[in-house]
Design goal:
The complex is a heterodimer of chains A (161) and B (140). Chain A is built from 6 helices and 3 strands, in the order αββαααααβ. Chain A is 33% helix and 9% strand. Chain A has one domain. Chain A has a 3-stranded antiparallel beta sheet with strand order 2-1-3. Chain A has helices spanning 13-23, 52-60, 67-78, 89-93, 102-113, 116-119, and strands at residues 31-35, 46-50, 130-134. The N and C termini of chain A lie far apart (39 Å). Chain A is of the alpha+beta class and 161 residues long. Chain B is mainly beta and 140 residues long. Chain B has one domain (35-136). Helices cover 8% and strands 43% of the residues of chain B. Chain B is built from 2 helices and 10 strands, in the order βαβαββββββββ. Chain B has helices at residues 16-19, 27-33; strands spanning 10-12, 24-26, 37-42, 47-52, 54-61, 64-69, 79-85, 102-107, 113-120, 130-136. The longest helix of chain B is centred in the first third of the chain and has 7 residues, at 27-33. The radius of gyration of chain B is 19 Å and the shape is globular. Chain B starts with 9 loop residues before the first strand and ends with a strand. Classes of the chains: A alpha+beta (161), B mainly beta (140).
Amino acid sequence: MTIKTPKFQGTHLWDRLCWAKENLEGKQSDYRIVWEDPDKPDECAKITVPDPNWMACALQGGILPPVEVYWLLAEDEAKPDFKKHTRGYLLHNTKPVEAMTEEQAIEYLIMKDIPQRVWRNYDKANKPRLVICKKDQLPSTREWRNAWKIDENVVNLEEVA
Amino acid sequence: MANGTIAFDTLTTSDSVNTGTEKSIDTSYLFNSIPKQWSNYAGSGTTFRDSFNTTSATDNGTGQFTITLTNNMSTDDNAYLYSNNGATAQEVQEFTTGGDRQFAQIRAQATGSYGVQPIGDGGTQQDGGLNCSTVLGDLA
């Protein structure tokens, strides 16, 4: 049975997450985001995994704030005199985003949780630095984990790291 | 069942009828003292078992993880609690004095994320089969 999301604009985001925890079933995503930080070229590839309860919220719609809200909070936090957030209301009062597909949710997640220097113009870099793949395309063991890099010849995504 | 709102400022214990003593607590005490984010995940493969107020985990390499929050904290001056098990999988283990011991350091705290660095007996970073983290503090 499909459950309808209450009208949540103006409701504290925390309360929305409480509602989601009670009413939505978590969705384990098979997608993984593999990325390298251009500012730290010696570091290994990083792998970001979406949280199942968060993914359920994204698929449901009407719960999560627009990703731009997180950018505004990040701007505030980057200021040298930052002490505490004074614009937290943006999380709660901005109109929530509509239901996303799993692929759209992954794009949202990239823009929320991965530094902008990684994903802005990622396709214009002289080597791949961001790849979305399926879990089973990653190495099956963690041997030499700290040496993992994105394959520079990655084209068909059969072998990513 | 229809959704509704119950607004109240205090909770009164049910045994006050029996004891004749009124015992109550301001609900703000409860809210201020409960965890605002928690997660249980496997380090190797970084798979969430369950969580609350969590957006993602990033595997930054062996024994280095970043957890991000959906509802940011107000500041980065929060209390971070962490427990883990160095075993390769989550399993119910008997009490031992031997292997699979780990401790962890919290790194790179921000209002919307924090890093976790599990370290094993030998002093090197390790993934863990069972990683549990919690944040207490004020929400943005």
